[in-house]
Structure formats: structure tokens, C-alpha cells
Amino acid sequence: MAASTTIESDALGLSARRRGAGWLALRVVVAVLGGALLAAAFPPLGWWPLAVVGTALILASLRSASIGAALVIGLLGGFAFYGLHVMWLTTYLGPVPWLALAGLESVFFAGGAVLIALAWRWVTPLVDHAAWRMLAVPALVGGVWVAREAVASVWPYGGFSWGRLAFSQSESPLGELVAWVGSSGLSWIVAFLAAMLVQAVAERSLRPLPRFAPVAVALVVAIGFPAFPIASDSTVRVGAVQGNADAGLYSDRQRGDILDDHLQASLPILDEEIDVMVWPENAADLNPLRYPQAAGVLDFVTERTGAPLVVGTITDGEEDETFNSLLLWEPGEGAVAQYDKMHPVPFAEYLPDRQFWYPLAPDLFDLIPRDYSIGTRPNVFDIETAQTSILAGLAICFDIVDDALIHQMVDDGAEIILAPTNNADFGRSSESIQQLAIARIRAIEYGRSVVNISTVGVSAIISPEGSTLAELTPFEAGAMVEDVPLSTAITPASVAGKPIEITVAALGLLSIVFGAVVARRRASRFGDQR
Fold this sequence. Notes:
Elements (H helix, E strand, L loop, with lengths): L1 H7 L12 H21 L8 H13 L4 H19 L4 H4 L1 H29 L6 H23 L25 H25 L5 H17 L9 E9 L14 H10 L9 E3 L13 H14 L3 E8 L5 E9 L3 E7 L13 H4 L4 H4 L14 E5 L4 E6 L8 H9 L4 E6 L9 H16 L2 E6 L5 E3 L5 E4 L6 E9 L5 H38 L1
Parallel strand pairs: 1-2, 2-3, 7-8, 8-9
Antiparallel strand pairs: 1-12, 3-4, 4-5, 6-7, 9-10, 10-11
Helix pairs in contact: 2-3, 2-4, 3-8, 4-6, 6-7, 6-16, 7-8, 7-16, 8-9, 8-15, 8-16
């Protein structure tokens, strides 16, 4: 009888039968509060424990919810999270792109909320013993959360993974776990801890100590788990330049101004010993492959330093193609290699299915002056320095959030990750801080130093352990020179990260199907007995 009561009761202590407008309103308030707290776990606030608290409130609001209620709860709770999390979109672009992105992600969130509600309803009765429910049900609910993140991270048009739970933990002790389990695995751990907390509140058949002790133990184990050891093979002396260029979409500038800004910011370090210099995305706003004056600037810089330069520019391809590119510029040789961005941002760097979308908002989409093509060149440069050669993985701006691209460069032997970016369109908002947090997670996850260099900031060099080796003040021109560790270590995440994602997501979704079948059979058996 106690088990039955536990199953029918929800995480707020309300009977599943007491439904109506008041019930739904209360759940929406809880979910919206949870979404707001979850947003606060990410930069700029970065209050990482709130990731567990906010997720727990969202999960609690979905216990005993019908499909319709879960849709409403998920939609509003998801918008509370994403609306706050990507508020930086309004900096120069206004409310329409912000509403579109936050709204789309909220729809995904609502779909995930329905599945989570079904998991609470159908998976819980499958586990008869309360102690096992404390582990099994949260594990499967966490898997459903990861399944939603996984889909939203790759679809549609390459997805948007900016709000994954893992990315809230870049400064937390839990962040070190990402080297063991990958980004999706870390998201699962956060969701699992949150679901355990909800289950502990709901398990009325147990005394408080047996209910909450497992939550405390799981949290202590997660926080105290040792970091994966990363051995540095050697170092490379990197010069990274932030030009503080007026590089935004609405900037009133002359062509070549961004290039000159980065030249001027480079002058103080041209006489230092440097193995490789890195400039940001589109730092050469005149394509040096077409404009001799731009090529002359890069020749001057590389010949003065005697070191190669990795520089962002816009290049042309065949059949009117345009690419957001990085060039490897060698002293005395010019461009010897090129990488074209593989993950241009949909509705920002290109308009997918233009014939369908453009008529819906022509004034808005006129802001996208060109459609960048999707690159196909390898995202690793083999850079010859004065001492040796290094393999550098390349991630232009949004590339850093793409699991497949980071995995690809590590598979191809990258010893360091260069992440040039242009954050000028987002002003002094939290966008660049959030992007740096993602770069920090990537550094730990794959055991690689990351040089995150922006036109305006935040620019920093991150070690393979996630510590900051050097940083520049945002919106000030400057350069940093640092001996940066190289690594060829293979973290568990680089091997097992994707299988972990598939496993926990599949188990969560399959448990819903299995639970639904069992529930139907039980209902049929009960009907026959009557």
C-alpha cells in the first residue's frame, strides 16, 4: 500500500488526481523558477550548484503531469531558461531573433518534458523496491534529458547545443568529470543528481535518512572523483592578438580597418620569441588571397616574428561560394593551408532553405548579406615552427560547440585547439563568457589546451586541465604570449563520450516504451478481473 501511495504522489506532495487550473499554474510557476535558476548556473553568474536545483524543480514539476500539462510546463519552463540564457541575441539584433531561437529551443524542451513526464509515470511502477527506485528511476529520467539535449544539439540545421547542462559546470568541481564521461555524460550526471533529489522527496515510504543519504553520497562521489591525469608532451610559444576591432554587423568602418587594428595590437610582441601567432576570426577583413595590400601586412608580421600566423578571413570558392576561413600564413611563403568553417551558424551566417524562410521575414533576413558555404577541408593545420611541427585543431567560433568537429580534430592528431572567434555583434553581453566556458569544458574533455582568441574578447588561453594560463581585458586591444602545453593524451571521453550519450539516452527512451507496455498489460489484466 505504501509503494502504491508513493507512485501516485508527485514530487510536491500533491495527489495526481488533484488536477486543474490551480495544479497546472503551480507546476508552471515551479518550472519557470527552475528555468530561471538553471540559467543562473551558466555565465555570467555561473552559480553552478543551481544547475542541480533548477533541473530538480523542472523535473519535479513534471511528475504526475498529463501529456498536455507537460507540454505547457515544458514550453514555459524552457522559455524561462532559454529566454534568459540567450538574452545576448537582443544586444544589436533586437527581440525577433531572440524570440525565434528561444521559442524553437522551448519547443524541443517541451517535447523532452513530455517524455520525462511519461518516464516518471511508467518507469516508476516498474521498480518495486523503494531503495532501487532511488537509483534506477533518476538514472533513466536523466537519460531522457540527455536524449533531448542530443537531438537539439544536431537538428535542425546542425542544432544548437549552447544550453547543455555540462556547459554550466566549467568552473565547478563536477567539470573535471567531463574528461571521463564527455559532455553528454556530464549532463547526465547533473540530471541524475537532480532527479535523485526529486525522487528522495517523493519516496514517502522511506525515512528521511535512507531517502536523502544516497543523494548526498552521489554528490560527494561526483565532486570528489579524481581528475583524469593529462601529461604534457611539450609546449609551444603562442602569441594571440585581440585587436578590439569594430567588427560587428552594424559597424561603421572602412574595409581594412579590422586588419589594421590587429596589426597595431601585434606590434608590441613582434620582437618576442614566438612559435606561432593567432589572430581572430575575420581579423583580415580584406582577403589576403585577393588583395596584395592585405597579403603584405601578413608578410610583414610573419617575417618580423619568423613564425607562422593563423588568421581569419573571408574567402571565395567555386560557383559563387563564400567561406568563413582560417589561413596558415608562413613567412616568405604566404598561405600554405586553409580551413573553411564546417559549422556556419544557421540564420546568422547563412539562411537555410532561403526560398521558404525569406518571405516570412524579409526585413530580418536582409541582415544576412551572404550565405556562407559549409567547409569540407580538414580542421587541423600542420604548423611548422622553428623548433618542430605541431598539429593544431581549428574551431571557428560556433565550431567549438560541435561534438563531432572537436572529436574529428582530436582523432586527426590535434595537440592543441585554436579557437578564433568574433564576438563583436554581442557587445558586452554574456555571449563571449558563455563561449569561453564551453571552450574550457572542451579543454578538459579532450585534454587539449585551447587558445580562445576574439576580436573584442573574452580572449584567454586555457590549459588541458581547464585553468586559465593567460587572459586579455575585453574591449581593449592587446596581445598575450604564453608557453602553452601540447598533449596527445587520449581521455576516456574521447573514446567513450558518444557511446555514453547513446547508451543513457537509449536506456531512458526504451524504459518509457517498456513501461508503457507493462502499464497497458496491467490495465488489461485489471479490466479482465473486473
